[in-house]
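Inverse folding, one chain.
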């Protein structure tokens, strides 16, 4: 099986889905040549697991990137671009994000702004700054249509982001959702995500899909 992409960048790579994406990409039979694993402080204590993983795979490059800091995003783009030279970046996975357990009664405006800055504005800024590298990769492949092996942006979300699925749910504590997620390990989830990514094409551009490739209502 061909590699998912020649070059991949994953934000929020120090834990959870981001770390497991980097782990499984590096360990795949046909791994990407370049895996850029980013986080706010890749050499800090919370990045120990990522540092150990990078020490085992030459394909993994640690890059500092704070998705709510524009100079940090621009610095990361320059670092990745200088490493890739004229080949461009094939696949950008926006995974970094934060959660909030606030309810309508406990929420304050600053918390709302902080979550939107990280989960909405941040990924948009990352795409904007890395767009020249993605366009460069798309032109260099020599084939039409969208795919992860040519150039693509993947935004990792949650079913809680679906208005259609969440209509009628109580604001908290969402016991059914939490219970339904409990049996699914991050390893199993990421295996499914990578399988779905390999099948993406022009026809699925803009789709909201779950880890099994099923369509999720917006």
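Residues assigned per position:
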């Amino acid at each position: 099986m061909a590699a998912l992409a020649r070059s991949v960048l994953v934000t929020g790579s120090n834990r959870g889905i981001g770390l497991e994406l980097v782990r499984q990409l590096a360990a795949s039979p046909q791994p990407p040549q370049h895996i850029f694993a980013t986080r706010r402080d890749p050499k800090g204590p919370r990045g120990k697991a990522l540092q150990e993983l990078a020490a085992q795979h030459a394909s993994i490059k640690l890059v500092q990137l704070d998705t709510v800091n524009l100079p940090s995003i621009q610095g990361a783009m320059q670092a990745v671009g200088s490493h890739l030279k004229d080949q461009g970046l094939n696949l950008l996975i926006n995974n970094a994000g934060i959660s909030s357990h606030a309810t309508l009664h406990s929420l304050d405006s600053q918390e709302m702004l902080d979550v939107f800055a990280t989960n909405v504005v941040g990924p948009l800024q990352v795409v904007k700054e890395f767009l020249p590298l993605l366009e460069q990769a798309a032109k260099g492949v020599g084939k039409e249509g969208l795919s992860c092996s040519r150039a693509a942006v993947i935004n990792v979300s949650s079913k809680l982001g679906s208005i259609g699925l969440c209509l009628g749910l109580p604001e908290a504590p969402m016991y059914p959702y939490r219970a339904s997620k409990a049996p699914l390990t991050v390893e199993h989830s990421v295996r499914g995500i990578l399988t779905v990514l390999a099948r993406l094409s022009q026809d699925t551009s803009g789709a909201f899909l779950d880890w099994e490739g099923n369509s999720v209502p917006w």
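The beta strands are 7-10, 34-39, 60-64, 91-94, 152-155. The helical segments are 16-27, 48-56, 70-84, 109-141, 163-166, 175-181, 186-199.
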